[in-house]
Amino acid sequence: MNLVYRGKTKDVYDNGEDGLRLIFSDRVTKNAAGEIDPGGNTVAENTEPGQGEACLLMASAIFEELAEKNGVSTHMIAYDLPSLSMDVRRGTMFNPGIEWIARWVCTGSFLRRYGMVPGVYDGMRFADPVFEITLKDDAAGDPLVVPSALVALGVVDARTMTALLDSNAKAMQAIQAMFAARDLDLWDIKIEWALDAKGAPMLIDEVSPGCCRAFDMKTKKRVSGIALAERFRR
């Protein structure tokens, strides 16, 4: 197979008519302070043993349950833990790329943006989830964008945007329920969508420890990395 793209933590190979093959690696990213950070933009010099397996383990479990129990379309065809590989369908990407975020608790960048609002505090739980969309642009800091702007700019047409909003809300609700079933309190999560061969929304990339913030319901302590992925082992 020919290498198509080497990402920060995954390598993408051409898998012929079946689509693409993702190879998960133990590479990790770091932030501007030099700390290991899943949201960082620089690949660390050293790897984190077990990171690739953890990401594939969690992503495959979530994709499988979303498709089988919730009717959510994903790009996963098959996966193999020993080889750290996932075979996926090709999808039509948006230009620029778009990331979808759901928040159930006020913290992190959301708190930094809106902390000046009276009564807002770190850990404040929302009555309903807050959905955000950002453009994938590291240099610009992944700026927030509203759905109508994406339509006006021609990134997404109006009909597709409606379908994406519906699919995203459905998937996020299902994912939160999966976490709760494993005694995990999901505070926020980031996922990515593309369009399948028929132009319908298809969840892509991965849903793994690096794209979410979750806490143990009993101890109230954050669960992350390999420990978080282990909760999804079948």
Automatic annotation (TrEMBL):
Gene3D superfamilies: ATP-grasp fold, B domain, Phosphorylase Kinase, domain 1. One of its GO terms (molecular function) is phosphoribosylaminoimidazolesuccinocarboxamide synthase activity. Keywords: ATP-binding, Ligase, Nucleotide-binding, Purine biosynthesis. The keyword Cytoplasm does not apply. Pathway: Purine metabolism; IMP biosynthesis via de novo pathway; 5-amino-1-(5-phospho-D-ribosyl)imidazole-4-carboxamide from 5-amino-1-(5-phospho-D-ribosyl)imidazole-4-carboxylate: step 1/2. Its EC number is 6.3.2.6. Coiled coil: none annotated. GO terms for biological process: purine nucleotide biosynthetic process. It comes from the Bacteria. InterPro entries: SAICAR_synt/ADE2_N, SAICAR_synthetase. SUPFAM superfamilies: SAICAR synthase-like. It catalyses: 5-amino-1-(5-phospho-D-ribosyl)imidazole-4-carboxylate + L-aspartate + ATP = (2S)-2-[5-amino-1-(5-phospho-beta-D-ribosyl)imidazole-4-carboxamido]succinate + ADP + phosphate + 2 H(+). Residues 4-220 form the SAICAR synthetase/ADE2 N-terminal domain. PANTHER family: MULTIFUNCTIONAL PROTEIN ADE2, SI:DKEY-6E2.2. This is phosphoribosylaminoimidazolesuccinocarboxamide synthase. It comes from Desulfovibrio desulfuricans.
